[in-house]
């Protein structure tokens, strides 16, 4: 077996599958055997990340560590988490991990820096925004980050929960006017900083990919780079 | 954690993701936490199933057992394999498993019986067809099974390999005339007896779902039933 990618998923399950799909699409492969080996744990009983950060309800950390251990014990050499809000606990998870981990926030911010974007919009969960998960990273690089006003942010969150509840149509109609206003406000691109958003805006991304930074896609591209990197840098081998 | 579904995947990776997507879509869920817990191993270095059956090349059995053990050790209580051809080894895999397993062939054939179909077409890998994986099951129930003539069957196989190589367009244009002829020949429905086929014929299934028995969908519906069944029937608990 080649180097195994572990996906700590279930936050939500649809976003996990989207990350796997993007890993397949971003791999140069001509037959099954060329694809990147992956193992995905999608056990969605992890407590709600947003509720924990905003309302101090049950923490998802313990379960995330537990399921990360399943991946490590199965032989995963690099762990990725297709959930932006979960990255609030990224450093703590890293302390508990004995293998490589790639941050979705680092991956997305690197794309923004590489593209020399000075002025970016952010769509994300209210927790990701309130915890300044993206803003802090971007401020360090002198990048302006624009977020929707409070009422619109509530609608973004409602859209994400609608998608998770299976109502993709409601999710889409709630989100579309907000991303339109954000684009009209003059930002160069919008960070899709919640892994449900590329699913909700699937058609828009297809028609105008230049408007978006898909954090999931950025994470996956870094993961493909990790897989094909000539020198092993994982902690287990160190 | 609730009962955990294990997906022995990678045959191919796209089909694995399709099965996971269908598990999500077939689960009544209103939030992340309502979804069925799953773990998927998609390590695609498993030797080609069709080549082994037809040309006696390297057997996939050993690796399939190895990756099935990863699922069992992670706590999977029911294992499914989104690959029809791999079911050539289903009974051997079952001998090595200590948990429940659901056969994609049984699941698809049960749908055909339940729908009282007397006359069915079969699209599958040349190995699945030559090994009579479906035909034997269907003959036991007195169901006529029609397969494409040899030249067309070669094109079906070419289509499947084209899809696996990333050329969805070629896969589609090779397969479409064959499924059209099969439908015109008078079969009531076509079994999509290879997990790449629902991906290749995605649009056709959307427009005329009544023409097809999607084996992956049948497998997933049985898996959802297993998950919600009140009495645990798994071997580990016996």
Automatic annotation (TrEMBL), chains A, B:
PANTHER family given in the database record: ASPARTATE-GLUTAMATE RACEMASE FAMILY, GLUTAMATE RACEMASE
UniProt keyword Metal-binding present: no
SUPFAM superfamilies xref list: Aspartate/glutamate racemase (SSF53681)
Organism of origin: Brenneria corticis
Gene3D superfamilies the record matches: 3.40.50.1860
NCBIfam families (alphabetical): asp_race
Keyword match Isomerase: yes
Name used for this protein in its record: Aspartate racemase
């Amino acid at each position: 077996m080649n180097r195994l990618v572990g996906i700590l998923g279930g936050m939500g399950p649809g976003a996990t599958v989207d990350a796997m799909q993007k890993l397949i699409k971003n791999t140069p492969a001509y037959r099954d055997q060329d694809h990147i080996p992956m193992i995905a744990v999608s056990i969605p009983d992890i407590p709600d990340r947003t509720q924990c950060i905003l309302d101090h309800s049950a923490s998802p950390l313990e379960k995330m560590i537990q399921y990360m251990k399943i991946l490590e014990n199965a032989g995963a050499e690099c762990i990725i988490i297709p959930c932006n809000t979960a990255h609030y606990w990224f450093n703590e998870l890293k302390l508990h991990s004995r293998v490589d981990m790639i941050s979705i926030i680092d991956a997305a911010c690197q794309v923004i820096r590489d593209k020399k974007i000075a002025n970016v919009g952010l769509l994300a969960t209210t927790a990701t925004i309130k915890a300044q998960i993206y803003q802090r990273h971007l401020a360090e690089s002198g990048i302006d980050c624009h977020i929707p006003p409070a009422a619109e942010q509530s609608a973004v969150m409602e859209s994400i929960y609608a998608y998770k509840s299976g109502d993709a149509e409601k999710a889409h109609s709630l989100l579309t006017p907000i991303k339109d206003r954000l684009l009209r406000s003059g930002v160069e691109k919008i960070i899709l900083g919640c892994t449900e958003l590329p699913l909700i805006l699937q058609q828009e991304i297809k028609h105008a990919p230049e408007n978006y930074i898909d954090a999931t896609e950025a994470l996956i591209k870094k993961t493909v780079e990790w897989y094909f990197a000539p020198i092993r840098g994982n902690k287990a081998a160190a």
